[in-house]
Design brief:
The protein is of the alpha+beta class. The protein folds into 2 domains: about 190 residues, TIM Barrel (Alpha-Beta Barrel), CATH 3.20.20; about 180 residues, Beta Complex (Endonuclease - Pi-scei, Chain A, domain 1). Helix content is about 20%, strand content about 40%. The N terminus is likely disordered. GO terms for molecular function: 3-dehydroquinate synthase activity; oxidoreductase activity. InterPro entries: DHQS, DHQS/DOIS_N, DHQS_C. Pfam families: DHQS, DHQS_2nd.
Length: about 400
């Protein structure tokens, strides 16, 4: 096992403080809560982000985004840089001495390791001399398998494990490995864009912590119309009963279209698919934005929502556009007069999500072929004026 090599420093090497002291050393505002993308077992996990840089621009952007723990070398220029930044921003500097990280009081905060094989990783896991916080750099071209090995090796361990990442994309690998991810990352970059990308990643994932406000609407019109090019959206993840995509003819009112996860006598369940509507319709995507169904393609992300408004992001794996007979559905919010509409394929496997009832006496979804005036469905009401999918404040009339 090879320890990281750093320039020596004149920082004392005191005995390791107790666990309670180490926890106190870690600044809470360097943690970001990230939600799991798994619908069945959604939970929140706090992730640490430390930044290792000499760029003032990177430092400023990181502090503005809530990351205040920075790593410096122990040589005089690095200490001067730490002092300079501490005078202009509330930061928590950590200093490297050999294979250890110390805070400004000389207390050991973390142990550093350079790992290049599973055998070395096992030695790291079993090393009793390390601090409660472990920072690991992987040598080599592989990223995903080493990240998974790290998560597996330290599963159930009381130590906090971070991986050094030289790009936001690499950080994402460590944060998502084996679904759980590591406890955090050390973002070692000199480019401002990498900080912005990583924060954008957290923002998109953290949307799942906020419930979307859904409204009960009453169906006022159901009419079979002609043919149209409808879009089936196949995701890279599975959906449960009650989940679907928010789709509508107008961005101001999106219907919750149910997935094809329900069993039937005539066709197999496809819990990864939403038969979403025609090419012109809007669909909700992360960031409070919308895009046209015709714009979706493999690799893009959409927002999956359930009956209660619980949301998560999912990656599109495939989009199928085919000509099919359509049905027009119009609905009004129970307390309002605005009319909202959606076109859907006229088929028994296509349905709209019903309002959630705690006693579960109602159906999860109503097939459009059984839909009638007076039925209640779920609607997402929001601002209608959009520019490139972003909500803006302006007068708009759509009908």
């Amino acid at each position: 096992m090879a320890l990281l090599s750093f320039i020596s420093a004149k920082i004392p090497n005191p005995p390791a403080p107790p666990r309670s002291l180490l926890r106190a050393v870690l600044p809470g505002n360097s943690r970001i809560t990230m939600s799991s993308s798994v619908g069945a077992d959604r939970h929140e996990r706090s992730k640490l982000v430390w930044v290792w840089t000499e760029s003032r621009q990177v430092m400023t952007a990181a502090v503005e985004r809530g990351w205040s723990t920075f790593i410096f070398g122990s040589e005089p220029p690095s200490k001067e840089l730490a002092n300079e930044w501490s005078s202009i921003a509330l930061i928590h500097p950590l200093f490297v001495e050999g294979s250890e990280l110390f805070d400004v009081q000389g207390r050991r905060v973390a142990t550093l390791y350079d790992v290049s094989s599973p055998q070395e990783l096992e030695l790291v896991r079993s090393d009793d001399k390390q601090a409660d916080n472990v920072v690991i750099t992987f040598s080599g071209e592989w990223q995903v398998i080493p990240a998974e090995n790290m998560v597996a090796a330290f599963h159930g361990c009381k130590r906090t494990v971070l991986a050094v990442s030289t790009a936001s994309s690499e950080a994402q690998v460590f944060l998502e490995a084996l679904e759980q991810g590591l406890d955090g990352v050390v973002l070692k970059v000199e480019e401002l864009g990498e900080v912005l990308k990583l924060k954008d990643y957290f923002d998109r994932r953290n949307e799942a912590r906020n419930l979307l406000a859904l409204t009960k609407a009453t169906v006022t019109r159901v009419e079979v119309v002609g043919m149209g090019d409808r879009v089936c959206v196949d995701l890279c993840s599975l959906m449960r009963p009650g989940e679907g995509l928010l789709v509508g003819s107008f961005a101001r009112g999106l219907f919750l279209v149910h997935s094809e996860c329900l069993e039937s006598n005539y066709i197999a369940s496809r819990p990864f698919r939403v038969n979403a509507g025609p090419v012109h319709a809007y669909v909700a995507v992360p960031g409070g934005k919308t895009c046209y169904l015709s714009e979706l393609q493999a690799g893009k992300e959409v927002v999956v929502v359930d009956q209660t408004g619980l949301q998560r992001t999912a990656t599109v794996g495939r989009v199928k556009i085919e000509s099919r007979p359509l049905i027009l559905v119009e609905a009004k919010e129970n307390s309002g007069h605005e009319t909202y509409s959606i076109f859907l394929q006229n088929a028994e496997t296509v349905g709209l999500v019903c309002p959630y009832e705690a006693d579960k006496t109602t159906k999860t979804a109503i097939p459009v072929t059984s839909l009638k005036v007076g039925d209640n469905v779920m609607l997402r009401i929001q601002g209608g004026a959009r520019h490139t999918g972003i909500e803006i404040q302006e007068f708009i009339l759509e009908k």
